[in-house]
Amino acid sequence: xxxxxxxxxFGPLAVEVDGREMPPVAGLRPRAxxxxxxxxxxxxxxxxxxxxxxxxxxxTSARASLRNALWTxxxxxxxxxxxxxxxxxRESVGIAPxxxxxxxxxxxxxxxxxxDLDTLRxxxxxxxxxxxADLADDWVLExxxxxxxxxxxxxxxxxxxxxxxxxxxxxxxWARRAVGIVPYRESAHRLLMRCLADxxxxxxxxxxxxxCEALLAAELGTAxxxxxxxxxxxxxxxxxxxxxxxxxxxxxGEVASSGPEPRRQPAxxxxxxxxxxxxxxxxxxxxxxxxxxxxxxGGVAVVxxxxxxxxxxxxxxxxxxxxxxxxxxxxxxxxxLPAAPPYVPWxxxxxxxxxxxPPPPSDAVWPSDLARLCRAVERHWGRPASAAAxxxxxxxxxxxxxxxxxxxxxAHERPLLVVLEDVHLADRATIALLAYAGHQLAxxxxxxxxxxxxxxxxxxxALALDAxxxxxxxxxxxxxxxxxxxxxxxxxxxxxxxLPAETRARVSAAAEGNPLVARxxxxxxxxxxxxxxxxxxxxxxxxxxxxxPARLLVDAVSVLGRPMGLGEAADLNGAEHLADAxxxxxxxxxxxxxxxxxxxxxxxxxxxxxAELEPARRAWxxxxxxxxxxxxxxxxxxxxxxxxxxxxxxxxxRGYLLTAAQQARTxxxxxxxxxxxxxxxxxxxxASESTxxxxxxLADAEAGRGNRDEHDAAFNxxxxxxxxxxxxxxxxxxxxxxxxxxxxxxCFPRESLDAYERVLEIVDGxxxxxxxxxxxxxxxxxxIEAASRDAQxxxxxxxxxxxxxxxxxxxxxxAELELARGAALLRSRRFNEAEExxxxxGQLARDAGLADIGDVGLIQASAAAAARGSFSQTLVYAExxxxxxxxxxxxxxALAVRAYGLSRLGRHDEAxxxxxxxxxxxxxxGNAGLRATAQYDAGSxxxxxxxxxxxxxxxxxxxxxxxxxxxxxxxxxRLAEARLGTGDVASAAVELDRFPFEPVGPAELPExxxxxxxxxxxxxxxxxxxxxxxxxxxxSAEAGWRRLxxxxxxxxxxxxxxxxxGRSAPGGTVEPAVExxxxxxxxxxxxxxxxxxxxxxxxxxxxxxxxEQLGYPGxxxxxxxxxxxxxxxxxxxxxxxxxxxxxxAGKDEx
Amino acid sequence: MSEALSxxxxxxCQAPAIEVWKLLxxxxxxxxxxxxxxxxxxTTDGVAVYTDGAPIPTRVTAGPxxxxxVIDCLASxxxxxxxxxxxxxxxxxxxxxxxxxxxxxRLRSRRDMIVASxxxxxxxAELRT
Lengths: 1150, 129
Prior knowledge:
The structure holds two protein chains of two kinds. In chain A, α5 (117-126) runs antiparallel to α6. The longest helix of chain A has 27 residues, at 138-164. Chain A is globular and about 120 Å long. Chain A is an alpha/beta fold. Chain B is 26% helix and 39% strand. Chain B has a seven-stranded antiparallel sheet with strand order 1-7-6-5-4-3-2, with helices on one face. The termini of chain B are far apart. Classes of the chains: A alpha/beta, B alpha+beta. Chain A binds chain B through residues 964, 968, 992-993, 995-997, 999-1002, 1004, 1006-1007, 1009-1010, 1013-1014, 1017, 1040, 1043, and chain B through 16-18, 20-22, 25-28, 42, 60-62, 65-67, 69, 84-86, 91.
């Protein structure tokens, strides 16, 4: 290799060899990988690099993706004869250390510590463009911030060196550049002041001090340090200049101004200080809810109303009272932008809450979970964010729980008021969190107030609020209507006192009961505007009166779509102009400063100002805002992406959209992740490989949401692009993703198998060097065969994959294979071995850091334990899951297992408690389907416990939802039995009439439904006095169960247990022998009552023997009743068949 | 590849739907109504249905969406879907049969079988009430 590789990382990534430019690396991920390797010279472990770039998948999958990406990188390098620079061995990867290279970041580091002026100048020149400007990965943004700081340090060294060399003018120039890069570093400002003073520019030095003051006030709300103030005082003394008034940092919106005297005279009252008129009743309802909350009966208050009717104002009044009560207060509002980042109002409110609350105990885990959403946790509580869960659902569970814990902690010493404004604009994740957290405030001194604009149709919001109402969590709902004429008159008089009567009347009429419109109309009338025109027209005059910096500020805040931090405003507008700009805009009643943010007086005013912008200026402003945000540390990438898109810079936006999608996914916000990905593909441009990456990520995310059609559509797009590119390995890799999606989230085993077989065709047929993909495909096939097709074939495939070195090196894949083996054994009814394999899979997965698979292993082990009759062991597995930090779904499943096991052991009170706990847990999610499933399961537990009224209530409620996640036919049957238990024979018969029209899914074990139906029909017939018919039905049921148990070997009475895959195991288990015993006991009772004592005695003996053999405590009471009649047992508290209580007589009464 | 052929046959049954439901879901009772079926033997994966020829492995499963019952002859890919809907006199029974390979001859024989079986199914259900 003769040539020299030159790589430029400052600016867009560019590589050349001997003057020949390397073609762009296809795909964002391979390009980022090359950039990372160039930025981190040396060899790196493949495993570490793979897990850094593909963190959410199995090691084998990550290694396969790394292999593909490296192949792409090598192809690009090879095009300029530089393939040898990629040093990719079996275990490590890096840029070849022994070949000559010139990488600008390495050069920068070499030069940065020099004391030589020319060297430092060259160093600074290298970094004039932002690092890797064409990438927006999280690590890139971190490194970009790092190099900004380093570049500023170089500028400061240049300034110091020039100053030491007696060149204060040149030194000032470098210091000024440093200030431009790190405006909040006070030492840079001091150096600039000194250099300017040394250069004899005292006035400039003092102006630099003023800018420093303004910047620090704007960004941090602080004054310069003593050292800086002393320096300024000395300079002022030298120049004989009096001190200047600083930017007022109060929250009133009154900002000191040195600008021209404003032309409009009416004194402005900030909106939040305007008296509240005509809302006494609404305010009282809110205050009552707050008083209740303070007493420990917290909940949610909803304030609705059209725009401008005063929702925020009413809530502000409540907040003022709450603060006077000594409460903690936190508020957040949404971004008025399409596809805003997830959870914004929550993260804003939590930031305030965290800042105003002492740190929680150091052993609490939740603050580290909360820190992923709210950076203030690290800043104020010293708790850095923990790693996100790989599974979005688990991450969401942790996050939601952490938010509830934060609210609980915030309310532990003082009552807490949290306000979320304008939730009608909120993202779906915010609404889901509202539903979850709102439900759990009932026992806390905390009130969550949400405001929403009426007339907006948001189904998810309506459903969430409806669910909260049904759970009794809504403390009050207020709907603001128009104010009456008298109150509008008072609003006008307060806004502009002394208006002529005729003008006042015209203003009141134009307002139509809207106080915001009344105030704006009054100002418009004073300005001579035609009141028949709308708000937008009225605002033109005040907008026209603004100074250019003020107009820029107003326009920029309008495009930003949220309150603008003073620091952001200073960056955007220049700190020196900020005070005047804010003052001018505030004077025109357009903007105000509140909580160190510049905001519009009202959302309607913002909308009107935004509408006034010409398209070209609007696009320019979005670009300017994007640039400002990009340059700030901790920027929100979704927001940057949005402004880049709105400015027409789609190429730049794409990387940010992909990063935003990844961030949303790691917060469990899949809906938002999908929205970002959809935009990324919509604005994809011509780069087919990176577009294919985005389509594939979208297919994966849609599968995570359970959307098969959308998954297929996105995958087809990715597949078509990959075909065109001719990249066989990438195509095979895409099919591996599809196979995983289809067998996990989507549950289409046949199609999943097709996808994995396609991988094998591509890899084996095309001679593609992709052993990891081959191993993954074979493992996928093994799982599908084991779980849903040919169990024996599944076990063989598992053994085959285990022999592959790729699988042996991947603990996660090893765990998955063991899980597949367990499933195959379970389906083969080898329950002991199935339990062992499943438990082992759980442990292997946990050791590999795959908690989700670990929990699945334990659930499967519990199903196997139940199937072999060890219900106490079932409970052990459930408790193990509940001890882990599992997702809500997994905890709910563990509670279902606990309830089932306890019920089967006859511990009905505990079983009922577990079922209720599960119901409560799933109700919090606001997911109607999950709640219905929990109602069904709790109803079944209640039925077994003899709680017939509870059972009827819960089963009826579950069926009424129409949700399809639980077995409807079985639910209808159990509801009939429960109705019978409450003595309502007629209703029981009606439920039976409905039964055949209920859908029957494979998880309902259709073969077991017929005898269950016959038994309930018998019970209804008996209760209805149709004793012969009852006898026939019992006989049919008995025959049905006998058919299912007849092959059971005597030594293994559980061998006939049926396990329904697809239902939460072991809730989908049917024990035919238990059902036979129950039916025999009930039939015996019927016969005994009819005098057929001998036959009754025989049946009862058989039922008793079965119960003993199976360790089943049920139907003992029925057997005692039979004993009383046949004389075989001591008498108990017998019931007669004439009574309708022979209903589910197999319930456990012991 | 030939296109699938299909047909539908329906009948009103005076018995409650629940009685038809049981006949459809209980393979052991196929002999009561399925024309030509002489014997049923349970297997590990459903039942073996005996007619004049060799036993036909058969499985009862749920239909698409779970609102109907599918009697699935494992020996061929023909699909028999039975659906019940409410009717003022009892219930309305519909059988839909799809012959996978477009064999018109087999389609005819399937139709003959259903035309013979449907009245027997209705009668068997009505007998139980």
